[in-house]
Design goal:
Helices cover 54% and strands 3% of the residues. By secondary structure, the chain is mainly α. It comes from Herbiconiux gentiana.
């Protein structure tokens, strides 16, 4: 059985990502930067996916180029180690969650982008 988040539009969660960043003095541009880094989408691609209500499954399936450094994203999200998630799609979604958390915590962008 597929998890409900797989069919959830990215646009339904995106405002929460931005709000989380903004609560700690960060902004939408930083959220978009980590999305671009992770997925290879350009800004127009992100905007189009949001406007078209693209679900997470399609968003990641159509990602131009998942970053080869994405497996360097480690740590806990909702009490689960992202590096130990078996389902590839769920892991990608949790990688994105982790990156947004790091933006919200004020981590330096060079560290967030595993640079």
């Amino acid at each position: 059985m597929a998890h409900r988040i797989f069919t959830t539009p990215v646009a339904a969660v995106y405002p929460h990502y931005v709000a989380k960043a903004e609560r700690t003095g960060h902004d939408k541009a930083e959220v978009d930067e980590v999305i671009r880094w992770l997925t290879g989408y350009d800004q127009n691609g992100i905007d189009r996916a949001l406007a078209e209500q693209t679900d997470f499954e399609t968003f990641f399936a159509e990602a131009p180029a998942m970053n080869p450094n994405a497996p360097l994203i480690t740590g806990l999200i909702c009490g689960i180690r992202v590096e130990q998630i078996d389902d590839p799609l769920m892991q990608r979604i949790r990688w994105l969650d982790k990156l947004v958390d790091e933006v919200a915590r004020g981590k330096k962008m060079t560290s967030i982008l595993r640079g």
